[in-house]
């Protein structure tokens, strides 16, 4: 099929098969018009075939006789019964042939599928040559099976036969022009062949076919860009090497001297320090990699004395620090070198050991090296493949340090906490690894530097974005008890303590997305601490404390009565008058919860908000959640005697009517507004007069069902 003439014949044959199939369907159609058209087309094709055969005979007998062949067409029209019989025979033959072809195709498809599965098994086992053989045998049975082409292309890629992979992808696209896998594999083959422009075009085609593959598209394009950059750097480094530049020769000489055995430790340390200075440029990094500089980490003379020593002498500590500085210089801003470093045997497992070695200098340089990875997405993915529980253990241990190690360790954890793979591993090891570490962190909060503790709490808050982790942590009584103790502090506490409280309140807001008995047990003391924080000088803390109340009170009626007695209504009204969209949304939610179950809260709201000016102002808000809660609070307060009369002469009817008959995305806005409107008119009939002027009686009638159901 790879021959062009053969392919053309094959395509013409397929077109003829399609034409005959269409004719058969037309002849069998119940529509007489379609059937007549198919009969006419069939007669036309028969006449053309008859004329073609007669022309061939005429050419053969041209030397002997001359006949007017137009009589043939006349005879066809003259003998309709013979034509009909011949046509029926022709159609029967066609139908029989089609059935036989369909049977053969079904049989071949079964064989091809079986061979495809055998090829898949061989591929999974790593026997790519056998996989290719099975896929090829399947294609002999069924030439137009797209999956066999793409699977074989994938196997060719594993064997670095990129041209063959491209050819199979092209054939897969002939079978299915929108085959995403074909474009993906073709892009990888072009990338391996350093056809960067063609590779990007393949990935762009994937995005055109399926816009939802944007994440995969970005990853592929990023990989292509890095590969293109790596190639340019290696070519530049090679040119410098060939030109005999001093830097290139210096790197080669230093590598040779370091890899040669028999030297004393100070010699290796000095040479490695010199090498670190030489590879600090982009070209130096590339020369270091292309000259197999990372292989020194596998050298027993170097690695055995630096990384793997159980107890280190001062000279061995210096050697280890020198190696870490060299790794930093080689990997700074260079994703390819970072990948190569972690690909070295035992390096990934050795880094946590260096962090827990107890030598501050080694720990600082190891943290600096790991930070180079955590600062960008590609590096975080590489770190995410390591043992998460071990990383958590060693990094969290730095939280008690009083120097820069604590900040750097927490920054690394904060960077990693947003990675899906990291979250998944944390979820799997939560009871044995994650929960004990963070619980201990909260319990020992007074012994930990405030800045590091705040970062640790922020990490835990980010991890709680994962539903599984959040649900498990929300069940921990130790966590809630430790949080309660940390919230105990005066408003004049240190800035570090304020930052910790701010981070802790964010964590609690995430945890309160859950609902369980543990939360109910701690609802009263937690709400009391948050109420005290409403007088804090830091507005961010006030906002989050209000947010905690808005999420905690709905699940704890006992806490509602406590906070109402402590003056929460007055505090919420003060926050609402001060403005601030986020704070206002939390405050009105808190008021709606309190007025729902406490008559005292309703009375205090009526007393504190003369003529409901605050609530009416919130009904003008552009935030639907705020409007819905304001309408709910108003409807609760309208149960009090005299509340509806206080609203005479205001714009309340117009506002409620607009929301009750509006098209808000949240149906609760319409329902709460309708309930408030109905209660308003029931409690004070004089509001009905304004309702008539606004032609709103129909909306009022429809709203009465909400009033009755409420």
From TrEMBL:
Give the residue ranges for region: Disordered.
Answer: 28-66
Per UniProt, the keywords (alphabetical) are: Repeat, TPR repeat
Q: Where is the composition biased (Basic and acidic residues)?
A: 38-53
Q: Which PROSITE patterns match?
A: TPR
Per its UniProt entry, which superkingdom is the organism in? Eukaryota
Q: A GO CC term?
A: centrosome
Start and stop residues of the TPR repeats: 180-213
- Alphabetized Gene3D superfamilies for the sequence: Leucine-rich Repeat Variant, Tetratricopeptide repeat domain
- BP GO annotations: axonemal dynein complex assembly; sperm axoneme assembly
The molecule here is called TTC12 protein
Q: What is the source species?
A: Loxia curvirostra (Red crossbill)
Q: What is the lineage of its organism?
A: Eukaryota, Metazoa, Chordata, Craniata, Vertebrata
Gene field: Ttc12
């Amino acid at each position: 099929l790879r021959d062009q003439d053969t392919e053309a014949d094959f395509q013409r044959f397929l077109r003829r098969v399609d034409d005959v199939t269409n004719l058969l369907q037309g002849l069998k159609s119940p529509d007489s018009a379609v059937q007549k058209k198919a009969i006419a087309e069939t007669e036309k094709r028969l006449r053309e075939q008859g004329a073609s055969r007669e022309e061939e005979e005429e050419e053969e007998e041209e030397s002997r006789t001359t006949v007017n062949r137009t009589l043939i067409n006349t005879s066809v029209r003259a003998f309709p019964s013979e034509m009909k019989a011949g046509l029926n025979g022709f159609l029967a033959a066609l139908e029989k042939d089609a059935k036989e072809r369909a049977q053969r195709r079904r049989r071949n498809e079964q064989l091809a599928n079986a061979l495809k599965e055998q090829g898949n098994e061989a591929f999974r086992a790593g026997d790519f040559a056998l996989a290719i053989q099975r896929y090829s045998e399947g294609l002999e049975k069924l030439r137009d099976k797209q999956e066999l082409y793409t699977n074989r292309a994938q196997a060719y890629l594993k064997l670095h036969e990129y041209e063959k992979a491209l050819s199979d992808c092209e054939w897969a696209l002939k079978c299915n022009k929108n085959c995403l896998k074909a474009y993906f594999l073709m892009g990888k083959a072009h990338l391996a062949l350093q056809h960067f422009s063609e590779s990007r075009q393949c990935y762009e085609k994937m995005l055109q076919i399926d816009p939802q593959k944007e994440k995969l598209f970005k990853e592929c394009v990023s990989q292509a860009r890095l590969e293109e950059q790596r190639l340019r750097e290696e070519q530049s480094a090679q040119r410098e090497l060939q030109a005999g530049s001093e830097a290139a020769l210096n790197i080669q000489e230093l590598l040779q001297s370091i890899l040669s055995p028999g030297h004393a430790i100070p010699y290796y340390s000095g040479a490695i320090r010199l090498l670190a200075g030489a590879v600090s440029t982009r070209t130096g990094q590339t020369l270091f990699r292309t000259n197999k500089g990372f292989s020194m980490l596998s050298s027993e003379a170097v690695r055995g004395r630096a990384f793997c020593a159980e107890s280190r002498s001062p000279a061995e500590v210096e050697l280890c620090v020198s190696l870490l500085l060299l790794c930093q210089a080689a990997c700074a801003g260079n994703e390819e070198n970072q990948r190569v470093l972690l690909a070295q045997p035992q390096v990934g497992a050795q880094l946590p050991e260096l962090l827990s070695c107890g030598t501050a200098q080694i720990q600082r340089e190891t943290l600096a090296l790991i930070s180079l990875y955590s600062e960008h997405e590609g590096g975080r993915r590489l770190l995410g493949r390591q043992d998460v529980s071990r990383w958590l253990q060693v990094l969290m241990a730095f939280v008690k340090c009083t120097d820069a190690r604590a900040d750097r360790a927490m920054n690394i954890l904060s960077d990693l906490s947003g990675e899906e793979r990291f979250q998944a591993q944390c979820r799997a090891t939560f009871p044995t690894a994650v929960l004990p570490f963070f619980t201990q962190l909260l319990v020992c909060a007074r012994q930990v530097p405030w800045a590091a503790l705040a970062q640790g709490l922020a990490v835990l808050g980010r991890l709680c974005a994962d539903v599984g982790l959040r649900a498990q942590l929300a069940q921990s009584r130790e966590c809630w008890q430790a949080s309660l103790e940390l919230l105990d502090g005066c408003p004049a506490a240190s800035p570090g303590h304020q930052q910790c409280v701010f981070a802790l309140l964010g964590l609690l807001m995430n945890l309160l997305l859950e609902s369980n008995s543990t939360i109910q047990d701690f609802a009263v003391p937690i709400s009391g601490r948050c109420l005290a924080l409403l007088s804090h000088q830091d507005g961010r803390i006030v906002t989050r404390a209000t947010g905690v109340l808005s999420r905690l009170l709905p699940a704890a009626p006992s806490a509602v009565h406590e906070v109402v007695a402590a003056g929460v209504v007055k505090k919420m009204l003060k926050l609402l008058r001060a403005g601030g969209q986020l704070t206002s949304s939390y405050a009105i939610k808190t008021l709606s919860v309190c007025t729902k179950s406490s008559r005292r809260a309703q009375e205090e709201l009526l007393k504190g908000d003369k003529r409901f000016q605050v609530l009416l102002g919130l009904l003008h808000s552009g935030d639907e959640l705020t409007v819905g809660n304001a309408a709910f609070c108003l409807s609760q307060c309208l149960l009090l005697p005299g509340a509806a009369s206080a609203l005479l002469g205001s714009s309340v009817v117009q506002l409620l009517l607009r929301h009750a008959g509006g098209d808000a995305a949240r149906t609760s806005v319409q329902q709460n507004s309708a309930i408030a409107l109905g209660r308003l008119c029931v409690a004070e009939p004089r509001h009905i007069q304004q309702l008539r002027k606004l032609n709103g009686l129909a909306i009022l009638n429809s709203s009465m069902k909400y009033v009755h159901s409420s």
